[in-house]
Amino acid sequence: MSKSSITKLLDAKGVRHDGRKFNELRPVTMKVGVLENADGSAYIEFGKNKIMAAVYGPREVHPKHMSVPDRSVLRCRYHMTPFSTDTRKNPAPSRREIEISKVIREGLEPALILTDYPRTAIEVYLEVLQSDGGSRCASITAASLALADAGINMRDLVVGCAAGKIEGRVVVDLDDVEDKEGEGDMPMAILPNLGQVTLLQLDGRFSRKEFDEAFKLAKDGCMKVYDIQRKALMEKYFGAEETGEQ
Amino acid sequence: MSKSSITKLLDAKGVRHDGRKFNELRPVTMKVGVLENADGSAYIEFGKNKIMAAVYGPREVHPKHMSVPDRSVLRCRYHMTPFSTDTRKNPAPSRREIEISKVIREGLEPALILTDYPRTAIEVYLEVLQSDGGSRCASITAASLALADAGINMRDLVVGCAAGKIEGRVVVDLDDVEDKEGEGDMPMAILPNLGQVTLLQLDGRFSRKEFDEAFKLAKDGCMKVYDIQRKALMEKYFGAEETGEQ
Amino acid sequence: MSKSSITKLLDAKGVRHDGRKFNELRPVTMKVGVLENADGSAYIEFGKNKIMAAVYGPREVHPKHMSVPDRSVLRCRYHMTPFSTDTRKNPAPSRREIEISKVIREGLEPALILTDYPRTAIEVYLEVLQSDGGSRCASITAASLALADAGINMRDLVVGCAAGKIEGRVVVDLDDVEDKEGEGDMPMAILPNLGQVTLLQLDGRFSRKEFDEAFKLAKDGCMKVYDIQRKALMEKYFGAEETGEQ
Amino acid sequence: MSKKSLVVEHLKRAQMLDVLTKGVRLDGRGLLDYRPITIETGIIEKANGSAKVRIGNTEVIAGVKVQTGAPFEDTPDQGLLIVTAEVLPLASAYAEPGPPNEDAIELARVADRGIRESGVVDLKELCLVKGKNVLAVFIDVSVLNVDGNLFDAVSYAAVAALLSSTMPKYEVTAEGVKDTGKTIPLPVKLTPISITMVLIGNTIIVDPTLDEESVMTARITIASADKNTICAGQKGNPGGFTEEQVMLAIDTAISKGEEIRKMLKKSVGHGKKQK
Amino acid sequence: MSKKSLVVEHLKRAQMLDVLTKGVRLDGRGLLDYRPITIETGIIEKANGSAKVRIGNTEVIAGVKVQTGAPFEDTPDQGLLIVTAEVLPLASAYAEPGPPNEDAIELARVADRGIRESGVVDLKELCLVKGKNVLAVFIDVSVLNVDGNLFDAVSYAAVAALLSSTMPKYEVTAEGVKDTGKTIPLPVKLTPISITMVLIGNTIIVDPTLDEESVMTARITIASADKNTICAGQKGNPGGFTEEQVMLAIDTAISKGEEIRKMLKKSVGHGKKQK
Amino acid sequence: MSKKSLVVEHLKRAQMLDVLTKGVRLDGRGLLDYRPITIETGIIEKANGSAKVRIGNTEVIAGVKVQTGAPFEDTPDQGLLIVTAEVLPLASAYAEPGPPNEDAIELARVADRGIRESGVVDLKELCLVKGKNVLAVFIDVSVLNVDGNLFDAVSYAAVAALLSSTMPKYEVTAEGVKDTGKTIPLPVKLTPISITMVLIGNTIIVDPTLDEESVMTARITIASADKNTICAGQKGNPGGFTEEQVMLAIDTAISKGEEIRKMLKKSVGHGKKQK
C-alpha cells in the first residue's frame, strides 16, 4: 500500500478512476452449476475477478485419522492460476494463498451445519482464473453458492464485499488499482440473515470514524451482492431467466 | 533440438560423425547379475551410456494400502547420477526423469505376468552412471534383464532402440551429439517375440515416409540388441563364454 | 577453518583473544525447569551460546508404526533461530543441523534407560537462541539436564566440552573466532561417572601428541562443566541458592 | 486416475467391448469421431493470450504470459518457452492438491514437446539482446473438468492461446531494453494438432472419454505439424500396440489432425475478431 | 492446536461460561484485563535488536537482523521488511517440527501486516542506491511457550525488537556501498499495538489463555497505531461476531492499546538504558 | 538401516561375540583386517575424475565435476568443494528413494570434513578472479551395494576420484575467463585415509560388514592425513567408548591408514597409466 499515488484515484467530483461513485460496486455476475464433476459449483465475475468454485463432499476423509466423529471436516483451498495476475504467479501455493484459504474456510463454517455429516469431509476449491482487488470476497461468495449447489445444509448464505480508503475518502469495493495506490482495505464477509460478521481483515490506516463508514459501506455492499447471489441460485433451481456469464 | 548444426553429422558418403553407417548401432555390452543385494540386476554399456539396473521383489508393499489384491504393483525409478552428464546434474529427480520412469514402467509392464504375485510390489531401479543419447532405450533393455535375473515370470523380454533424423537422413540409434544437433528422435521399445510396441516417443519432425523408415530402423535395431540381450542371459545361466563389461 | 589468521589468537604470554588461559572455560550458567509446557527443560549460557532445551515424553509415538515394543524411541532436534548467527540463518533445517541432531541423540542415548518406557517416544528439542563456538557441546549438556528434569531414568548425566588448536597450541573450549581462525576443533561429550565417550568429532589437523593433549583438555573441561550442571540440578530440586541466568 | 478401475465395473467393460465390435461407442460416436469441441480465446484480459477448450465434458483453460528474462547459457540467442499443466483439484473427485504427480508431469511434457520441440514458436525472434535479454513465454494450462483425453484438450488450449497471443514490442537502445507500449503477435509458425487414440480390446478409437480410458490397455498421442509432418509422439499406459496399429494411429493422426487444425484456426480467427 | 478440544473438557467449558457471566474469569481477571506482561530487550547480542515478551505463561522471543540486499522490482526505492513467526516444537506438546502450518503462517502474516502495511518502518530510509542496494530488515519471532494469545505476544516482541534495534550506517561512494562501522537507530515511526479478543458464549474477553481459546467461538485481533488510528485487523476461527461486538472490539482495541503502548515504550526505553 | 535388528537374529549375535573373543571373525578375518579392497579410476569419461571402490561386497562409485562459479562472500579467494553421498535405492533392500535421510547426510558430511576441512585440495588454487570467478569441485558419491563400512568406501572413492581428476586450464584475460582447452591435474595436496572401527561387546574391529554393524554398539571413524596427523573424526551410533578404546582407535587409524594409503596411491597411479 504505497503512498506514492501515480494514478488519480478520485476526481474533483468524487468520481473514481473507473467512473464509479464511492458506494458503487463493480459489475457482478454469478452462475451456479458450471462444472460437470463437482458435487456443487459456481462461477463469479466481480470486476475483473474471474473465479471458479467447486465443492466435493460430504465424502470419506483422507487420511482417515483426520475424520471427526460428530461432524464433517471443512477444507478449503484458494488458489490462483499462474496467468491470473499481472506478473506470472508461481503455481506453488504462496503464504498469502494459505492464509486466505484459512480465513475463507473460517468465514464459511458458521453458515454450515457440519454436524449433519459426521465422519466426512467437505472440500471447497477456489480457483482464481483472473484476479482483481477483492478476490477473497468474491471467492467466499462463490464458495457459498457452490456449497448450496452441492446440497449442503446451511443456516445462511455467506457473502463478501470490501471497503477501503483512497485519497482520504472511504469507498466500497476497491479494484486492483485502488488497492495498490490507496490507503487501506477492509475485506469483509457476513451471513446476511443471521447478521454475523464471519470474515474481517484490515490493513492500512483508518480513523475510528472512517472505520464506521467503511463497515457500513462494506455491509451495504454485501447486501447488494446477496441480491445477485440469490438470483443466481434461483436461476439454477427455478429456471428463472438466464443472466450473467455463459 | 536446435537447427544450428555446428558439427557435421554426416559426411559426403553418408558416414556419421563417429564413423557409423546409417543402420549401425553403437557398441553394446551387457552383463547379468552384477549387484550382490538386489534380487536381480544387470549392467549395460550402450555407446557411452553406462547403466545399472536392479530389481527388488516381489516383496511387501509399503505403504500397505497401495497393494492390489489381484496382482503385483510395478514401480520404476530412472535416475541419473550427478556426474553422468556433461554439466553436473542436480541429484533431485527432474521432471524429465519422472516422465522417463513412467514410460519405462509402462513399457515393461506388458512383458510381466504381474497376476502371479498378488499383493506384492516389484521395484525396478535404474541408475544412469554415464548418459549418452538413447539412455531410456538402454535402460529398458537392462531393466528387462534384471527382471529376468530376479526370476519374475515374463511373457517376453523387452528391448529398446531409437531411430532419429540427422541432416535430413533417417538413421538408427542417435548418440548425444546427434540427438542435440539432429532434427528428430524416436525412442522405441518392443516385445521381440510378441511383436508389441510398448514404448514409443517422438520429437522433432518426420514426414510420413520418414516415420516408416525410422520405425523399420528402430525395429531392426531392437532385434540386434535382443541378440546381445539373450546372450547375456545365457552367459549368466548357462555359463557360456564371458563377454562384455567386467 | 581458514589458514589466513586475521585475529591474533594467542599473545606472547599465551593469553587468548578474550583473556582466557589455554585450559580455561568461558563463563557458564545453567538453569533447570524454565519452560512451562515441557515435561522437562533447561537453559544454558556458555560463552555467547544461549540455548533452550526441552523434553516431551515419554509419550505416545506418532506415527504409531514407529514405536518399538521393548523400549522408548529417542528423538532429537537441534535447531538455530534465524537471529542466532552473525548472518541471518534460513529457518529451514540445514544439513549441519540434521547431522548435529543425530550425534547429540546418539551421545545422549547411552545415558538413558530407554527399556523402562516401552512403546513410547522421548523427544528432545534444542533451540539455539544465540550461537557461539561449541554449541553442540553446550546443547548436549542442556539436553541432559532437561531429561533429568523430565524425570527420565538415567544411568548418568551427559556433559560436553570441546578442545581445539589455535596457532599451533592445543586449548580448551573454542569460541566462534577461535573456531573460524584456528586449525582444529574436537567437540566431545562424556558420561562423567561411567567414563564413556559418547560424542566425539574432529576436524582440522592434530598430531598424535596434540590429540592426546586435546583429549585431556576436553575431558577436564567436561568435568568442570559437570560441576556446574550438578549444581543447577540441585538448585532446582533442593532449593540451593540461586545462581546463573534468571 | 489410479482409481479408475473402481469407477467402471466389469459389466460396463463387457458392454463397451460389445458395442465397439459393432463400430460404435456407448455415446453413439463412430470409432474415429471426436466429441463436440469448442474453443474460445481472449477470455483472460490480463494474459497475453488465453483459450478455453471443451471436448465433450473435458474442459481446460490456458493462459500465456510473456515476460523478459535471461536466456539459457547454451542457447544465448533464443527466447524461452515453458509449458506447464495442472489438473486442478476442482476438476475431478480424484484430483488432489499438491505438487504435480507423474501423470500431470507427463501431460505437461508431452504438450511441451508438441509445441517447443516442433518449432511452433520461432525462439530466435524472442531474443532481444544476445546472451542477455530474451522474452520468456509461459503457457500454463489448468484442467477444470476431467472427462478423458486431457492430452488433446491441453494441447489445443495451449496452441489456441499461443495463436491468439500478442507480446509487447521492445526497443533495444544504448541504455537497455525498453517497452514501446505497442504489441505485436507472437511469432507462431505452425499449428501442431495432437490426436489421441486408445486401444480397447483390439479396436483403436480416438478421443476417449474417462469411462473409455478406464478400460483401455494402451494410449498413443501423435501430433502433426501439417498434413505430411509428424512432430510429437507418446505411447502411454501399460499395454502395447502392434506395428499395424501404430501405422493406423499415424495415418489417423494426420487425417484427423487436418480436420481439427482447420476448426481450431477458424475458432481463433473468430475469437480475434470478437476481441 | 487442532487438538485443543481434547484439552479442555465440557465441564470446564460450562464452568468457564458460568464465571464469565459474572464478569470474571477462572484466573480471577476481569473481562478486559491482560495477564502480567514483561518485556526485555537487548538479550541477543548478535542481533541488531531483540526482545523477549511474556504474557502470563506465553513466552516469545524476537530478533532483528539487518542486511544489505536488492530491492523488489516494483519498489526500487524501498528497503525490505520480512516478518516470520514460528511456534517452536519446545513450546507445546502439540507443536511439531516442520515447515510452518497455516496457523503459523497466519500468525506471521498478521504480525507482518501490523508492522509493514501500517508504515511502522519508513522503508524509503532503507534505500541505499535506488534499484540496486537496499537494507533488508528481518524480524524473526520464535514462540518458546504456548499459553494463548500468541498474536499479541508475537506482535509486542516484534515491535519491541524493532524499537530497540540499530542498523549499520552506510556510505554510498563512487565505488559502491561501504559500511562506516557506525550504527544508527532503525527509522521506526510508530508503535502499533495489537489487541486480541475472543468470544466465549456472548462475552468478549481480551488476552485469552490456552484454556479460554479452547472454548472460544471466534477471535478478533485489532492493532492501533495511536489512540485514533486502527492499522490492522484479523478475524479468526470458525465463528462470527455481531456488528455490536465488532464495534466493542474496535473501542477496546483503541483503549487497551493506549495502555499497553505506554508500557511497551517504557520497557524498551528501560532496556536501552540498561544496555 | 533402522531395520537391521530384523536382519541379524539374536543367535547370530551370540555366535559373533563368541567368535570375536577368540580374535577372529565369522568370515575368518582378524580383528584389524580389512576385506579385499579394489579401486578402479577413470571409469566415467564425462567426469573430470571418477573411481569405483569395492570393500568386500560394499561397492561405491564417485565422480568429480569441475565447473566455474562464484565464490562464497566470506572466502572470495577460494574455490568451492562440495561432497555429496547417496545410498542408491538399488544398493539395498532397505534403501529408499527420496531426499537424503540423516544417515546419508552424516555419510556425506563426514566425507566432506575428511576432504575439505583437512585441506586436501588447495582451494586458493581454484580461484580465477578474486571475488568473482572460482572453480567449484563437486564430488558426488553413489553407493551401489551396501555391505557395511560405507564411511570408508565413500571416503576412498572420493579421494581416489580426486587424485585421478584433471581440471580445465583457464586463462584470465581482460575480457574475462577463458577455457584454454588444456587440462591440468587438480591441486590435491594430501591423501587422507578414513578407518572405521566398531565396538561389539568389548572388542574393537575394523571394516565391519553389515551383519557386524547390526550388532555393534558404537562406531568411530578416524581419518589420517599422513602417519602422524589425524584430520577427521566422527563417533556414531548410540553407544560409547572408554578412553582406552578411543586411544586404540586412534593408533589403529594411523597404522592401518598408512597401509591403505599406499594401496590407494598405487591403484590410482595404475589407473592413470591405463587411461
Could you walk me through the main structural features you see in this protein, from its secondary elements to its overall organization?
Chain A has a single domain, classed as Ribosomal Protein S5, domain 2 (2-Layer Sandwich), CATH 3.30.230. In chain A, 27% of the residues lie in helices and 30% in strands. Chain A is built from four helices and nine strands. In chain A, the strands form two sheets. In chain A, strands 1-2-3-5-4 form a five-stranded mixed β-sheet. In chain A, strands 7-6-8-9 form a four-stranded antiparallel β-sheet. In chain A, a hairpin with a 7-residue loop joins strand 1 and strand 2. In chain A, helix 1 crosses helix 2 and helix 2 runs parallel beside helix 4. The N terminus and C terminus of chain A are likely disordered. Chain D has 275 residues and is an alpha+beta fold. In chain D, the strands form three sheets. In chain D, strands 1, 2, 3, 4, 5 and 6 form a six-stranded mixed β-sheet that branches. In chain D, strands 10-9-11-12 form a four-stranded antiparallel β-sheet, with helices on both faces. A two-stranded antiparallel sheet of chain D has the order 7-8. Chain D is 30% helix and 35% strand. In chain D, strand 11 and strand 12 form a beta hairpin. Chain D is built from six helices and twelve strands. Chains in contact: A-D, A-E, B-D, B-F, C-E, C-F. At the A-E interface, helix 1, strand 8, strand 9 and helix 4 of A face helix 3, strand 11, strand 12 and helix 6 of E.
